[in-house]
Amino acid sequence: MVKLLVEVLEPQQGERVYDPACGSGGMFVQAEKFIETHGGNPLDVAVYGQELNQTTWQLAHMNLAIHGVEAKLGDEPADTFRNDQHPELKADVVMANPPFNISDWGGEMLGMDKRWVYGTPPVGNANYAWLQHMISKLAPGGRAGVVLANGSMSSKQSGEGDIRRAIVEADLVACMIALPGQLFRSTQIPACLWFLAEGKGRHSGWAPGRKGRCCSSTRVNSA
User: Fold this and answer.
1) Number of other residues whose CB lies within 10 A of the CB of residue 212
2) Domains, the chain, ranges and CATH?
3) If you count Cβ atoms within 10 Å of the first and of the last residue's Cβ in the chain, which end, N or C, has fewer?
4) Which stretches does DSSP call E strand in the chain?
5) 206 vs 167 pLDDT, higher one
6) Within 10 A of 90 (CB to CB), how many other CB atoms are there?
């Protein structure tokens, strides 16, 4: 799944790459491999990440050092929603595989957060908090890919349908793809992929001619 996200998003030499739920840093390692395979300089990439779990955060530092990846993972392990370690960052590529359907993400304290441009995410589910956080980090012409629970494509609970519609109508969604079940050993929850683009077609070769268009395994007009 990591390789698929990277292959679709096509990170390039000289770009800024961000993962708000970076785990042990696998996305970054794969991104630099992609750049090197395609003739770019993998050292000429600015890598930014954040991880809540202290042990995993330390593993990310070790994993990236082993692979020769220089990364800014924040001053400490921290919650992405409540303690953003890169508050001013605008990235060219944003990608993540965050935990699905988190209910205790602190939404009750973030109701007026400036990231919720398309609607306040429900307190009981962080899926649309992840999406909007990632959108808030996109530089002009940037693109994003995220793995979420399959229900994020169709749920209408607690205003999620309205948020989804607003994101689609803002022409930020390039594609939504429902994935086969049981892809992940860590969860039985069905998953999907969201690909987002800030200004479709501005990135050479990525989502060309997609302005005003979105593909999905569900009908866009029912979003």
Assistant:
1) 7
2) 12-97 (3.40.50.150), 102-125+132-223 (3.40.50.150)
3) N
4) 16-19, 46-49, 71-72, 91-96, 138-149, 173-178, 191-197, 215-216
5) 167
6) 15
> Nearest to residue 150, comparing CAs of 187, 179, 121?
179
Single-letter amino acid code for the residue at 120:
T
Rounded Cα–Cα distance for residues 163 and 127 (Å): 11
Q: Hey, what are 11's tokens?
A: 């990170």
The per-residue pLDDT for range 69-112, each reduced to its tens digit, is 999 999 999 999 999 999 999 999 999 999 999 999 999 999 99
Q: Which own/partner pairs from 67-76 qualify as long-range (CB within 8 Å, at least 24 positions apart)?
A: 67/29, 67/32, 68/32, 68/42, 68/43, 69/25, 69/28, 69/29, 69/32, 69/42, 70/43, 71/25, 71/28, 71/47, 72/46, 72/47, 72/48, 73/22, 73/25, 73/48, 73/49, 74/49, 74/50
| Strand 91-96 with 16-19, pairing | parallel
User: Around Cβ 110, how many Cβ atoms within 10 Å?
Assistant: 17
| Residue 166 one-letter amino acid | A
User: pLDDT tens-digit profile of 106-146?
Assistant: 999 999 999 999 999 999 999 999 999 999 999 999 999 99
Question: What is the rounded CA–CA span in Å between residue 203 and residue 187?
Answer: 34
Q: Among 139, 154, 130, which residue's Cα sits nearest to residue 19?
A: 130
Give the per-residue SS3 of 73-96.
CCCCCCCCCCCCCCCCCCEEEEEE
Tokens of 42: 């993998």
